[in-house]
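Dear H.,

Thanks for agreeing to be a second pair of eyes. The structure we're designing against is below in token form, covering all 346 positions.
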């Protein structure tokens, strides 16, 4: 049986990996330009609770299931490819600068508790004991041990080394794909191909570099009402993100975007200003009207779809891959994806 996957980003390649793991052999990935993958921009936070929003309980359950699968997924990718994916479990520190910022973090702490997730409130001093380079002005925050990270660039590098057939073709019409099974996983491009209401949500990100990491934890901060996250990599890179902009397919980097990220980053971690500003770039998150992905059969076609992962494509890769591989090979999955059917938008 031949399987064609449209889109060689985080989701398409994770599905390809899972199909290989389950014994599939004849897999073609169609992608004219993998450098457009949002995964190359993404920070790689695996944050099922900090990212959760009231009213998105089904999505949160899927995120929790996926974060639970991440260690096994990372281990299996490493075992099959011999390459690391940067999965780290030090956890996330939530940090606040002002009284108002603290009130916002307190609301988030309440949300974690209601969701049954581990969260430990910390004073400014306790935060600095864990991360000595945080600003002395940081008032307080919390530790979220269950919010982890992976490095999406390492993940993509590992997945691209898999024994797949890569064709640099843009698929603009599903009827041109001759494979027995078709899987649509082309991120924001899925809108044009399927008619699903997936829109690009622009995110600007900075990559700073130093000789060694300034912090060990992922830091999610609010400084004077400005939100920022800082994701440290072992090699000294610090990913600073991200703006959230409704600007269509625009991927320009703006002075204002850089300022919006650097200002709170410097407020919370002053040493960040000493680092080299190595990269500025913007990517397009595939957003949907309810912020949740579309998973399962595409009505009126013989294709399966896995798109619209918005802010969570890296986090949701393992559970998406398992569900779609099950549907493709066995016609069913024991993962509860009923809330994510394409039909909910018609
Ligand atoms: C700034 C930013 C920060 C983010 N941070 C995080 C984070 O911390 N944690 C997290 O979990 N997620 C994060 N994300 C979200 C994550 O990157 C996306 O959800 C994820 O990349 C979606 O994966 P995908 O494979 O569906 O799409 P993509 O990764 O965008 O890949 C789609 C691929 O399809 C190809 N394609 C497009 N059209 C066609 C076509 N017609 N035919 C064939 N191929 C086509 C493209 O070339 C591309 O390679 C972030 C995203 C951004 C932009």
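And this is the sequence the design step returned. I haven't edited it by hand at all.
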């Amino acid at each position: 049986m031949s399987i064609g996957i449209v889109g060689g980003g985080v989701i398409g390649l994770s599905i390809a990996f899972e199909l290989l793991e389950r014994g599939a052999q004849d897999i073609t990935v169609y992608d004219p330009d993998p450098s457009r993958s949002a995964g190359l921009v993404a920070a790689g936070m695996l944050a099922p609770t900090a990212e959760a929003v009231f009213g998105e309980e089904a999505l949160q359950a899927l995120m929790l299931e996926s974060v639970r699968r991440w260690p096994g997924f990372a281990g299996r990718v490493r075992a099959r490819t011999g390459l690391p994916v940067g999965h780290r479990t030090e956890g996330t520190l939530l940090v606040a600068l002002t009284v108002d910022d603290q009130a916002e973090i307190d609301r988030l702490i309440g949300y974690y508790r209601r969701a049954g997730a581990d969260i430990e409130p910390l004073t400014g001093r306790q935060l600095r004991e864990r991360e000595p380079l945080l600003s002395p002005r940081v008032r307080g925050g919390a530790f979220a041990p269950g919010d982890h990270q992976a490095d999406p660039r390492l993940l993509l590098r590992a997945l691209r080394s898999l024994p797949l057939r890569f064709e640099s073709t843009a698929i603009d019409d599903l009827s041109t794909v001759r494979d027995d099974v078709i899987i649509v996983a082309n991120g924001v491009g899925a809108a044009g191909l399927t008619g699903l209401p997936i829109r690009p949500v622009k995110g600007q990100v900075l990559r700073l570099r130093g000789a060694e990491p300034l912090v060990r934890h992922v830091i999610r901060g609010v400084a004077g009402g400005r939100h920022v996250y800082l994701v440290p990599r072992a090699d000294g890179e610090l990913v600073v993100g991200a703006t959230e902009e409704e600007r269509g397919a625009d991927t320009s980097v703006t002075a204002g975007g850089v300022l919006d990220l650097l200002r709170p980053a410097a407020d919370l971690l002053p040493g960040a200003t000493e680092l080299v500003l190595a990269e500025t770039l913007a990517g397009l998150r595939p957003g949907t009207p309810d912020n949740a992905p579309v998973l399962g059969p595409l009505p009126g076609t013989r294709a399966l779809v896995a798109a619209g992962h918005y802010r969570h494509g890296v986090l949701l890769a393992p559970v998406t891959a398992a569900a779609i591989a099950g549907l493709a090979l066995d016609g069913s999955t024991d993962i509860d994806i009923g809330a994510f059917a394409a039909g909910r938008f018609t």
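Two observations from my side: Residues 226 and 260 are 7 Å apart (CA to CA). Helices lie at 10-21, 57-81, 99-114, 124-130, 152-160, 190-194, 255-268, 313-330.

Warmly,
E.
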